[in-house]
Specification:
mainly alpha
């Protein structure tokens, strides 16, 4: 098994690179940025292709287990642990073809109490397995080394960039918009009247994440095929910070009127933005040694909307309160991934007064304890009573 076979070869990687959210619909992309996008395309293809293969094997193992041991819901409490243990053994056996890439620590953390009877867990384990195989195959490799392993060199990337035209970029924009509509219609049809808009919003947020594993998790919940999910990510990149809000508004329109977007042949007004001319290229100076690092311009922090929680509060909470992300996320009624997005300022900030009160209570609890510790240290603790 090698990376080139898994991703489908050079042409597949270059095609996926052009559809990458970092490149699609953009002009003036540098070859260095395209090389990074191509390496990310390798990751996307590897995880997508391999997870499909692993999922089929895991599903067969699970189906055989239920034939032999019955469904989990039919198992009594006294037999539930045994049922799960036998399933875990079947999972270990099913993953043997990829065992050379899966360490004992990884297996111990991912193939015990797999709970494959729960919705989406087969796909989730398949994605985690594929991501780990890719990680091992590309461990400590640069983007250029990863691309070389799949038959792509810098000249290939530069040639593809040179042949991309403004017309092609506009075609990508239209295709992404149409793909987003197809995906949103699929979501509306899948969930019907039982749609949970809050959960869908959280998973659209994950879908648009630059992390392939988180994005795959969002696509799995939304039950989107790989091509539709990728088109929605490209569309999300074009919408920048308004991606999730825009898609939720479009989804609402579709649930109210399934024919609302029946003829999406033109780029909608909110995607027609004038692009600044590409900066003039600086002269290339050949010198010995690595080039000097480019100067970085610190962007001013975006203003925090009134009535919402500043993401820095969550960052400080993580840094100094010694609380687990999972525990805070549970108290806020969201997934750990969504909580991490909030910490990093992605998606809509926390605005629910009850959620803000939860954060305040956690901060107060830890502040009170630290103040008492300081008073004990300095001998300034006020007398009780």
């Amino acid at each position: 098994m090698n990376l080139q076979e898994i991703v489908g070869g050079k042409d597949a990687v270059l095609a996926a690179m052009l559809q990458s959210p970092a490149i699609a619909g953009k002009s003036g992309v540098s070859p260095d940025a395209a090389m990074v996008a191509a390496a990310q395309a390798v990751q996307m293809l590897a995880v997508r292709n391999l997870s499909s293969e692993v999922q089929a094997v895991l599903q067969d193992a699970y189906d055989m287990h239920t034939i032999m041991s019955g469904e989990y819901e039919e198992t009594g409490d006294d037999k539930a642990d045994e049922w799960q243990s036998v399933l875990d053994d079947a999972v270990n056996a099913a993953l043997e073809p990829w065992g050379m890439f899966l360490s004992a620590d990884w297996m111990g953390g991912n193939t015990v109490d797999t709970r494959l009877h729960e919705e989406g867990m087969v796909a989730d384990l398949a994605t985690r397995t594929a991501a780990e195989v890719h990680r091992q195959l590309t461990y400590e490799k640069t983007a250029a080394q990863v691309l070389s392993a799949v038959g792509v060199v810098r000249a290939d990337v530069e040639a593809v960039l040179q042949t991309s035209t403004p017309q092609a970029s506009e075609g990508v924009t239209v295709n992404a918009y149409q793909g987003a509509i197809a995906g949103l219609k699929s979501i509306a049809a899948t969930f019907g009247d039982a749609i949970d808009f809050a959960a869908v919003k959280d998973n659209l947020d994950l879908l648009c994440d630059s992390d392939e594993t988180l994005s795959a998790s969002g696509a799995a919940y939304l039950q989107l095929d790989a091509d539709t999910a990728y088109a929605m990510r490209v569309f999300g990149n074009m919408m920048a910070g308004a991606a999730v809000k825009t898609m939720c508004e479009m989804l609402t329109n579709i649930t109210l009127d399934p024919d609302h977007y029946d003829d999406p042949m033109e780029i909608p007004p909110f995607l027609k933005r004038e692009q600044a001319p590409a900066p003039e290229a600086a002269p290339v100076v050949v010198e010995d040694g690595p080039p000097p690092p480019a100067a970085k311009t610190e962007a001013a922090p975006a203003p925090v909307p009134e009535g919402t929680l500043n993401p820095e509060v969550l960052s400080l909470l993580k840094a100094y309160a010694n609380v687990k992300d999972k525990d805070v996320a549970e108290k806020l009624g969201m997934s750990r991934a969504t909580f991490n997005n909030k910490v990093n300022g992605k998606g809509d900030p926390i605005s629910d007064p009850e959620h803000i009160a939860v954060v305040r209570a956690i901060l107060f609890e830890h502040c009170t304890g630290l103040v008492r510790a300081m008073q004990l240290l300095d001998g300034t603790l006020p007398p009780e009573g």
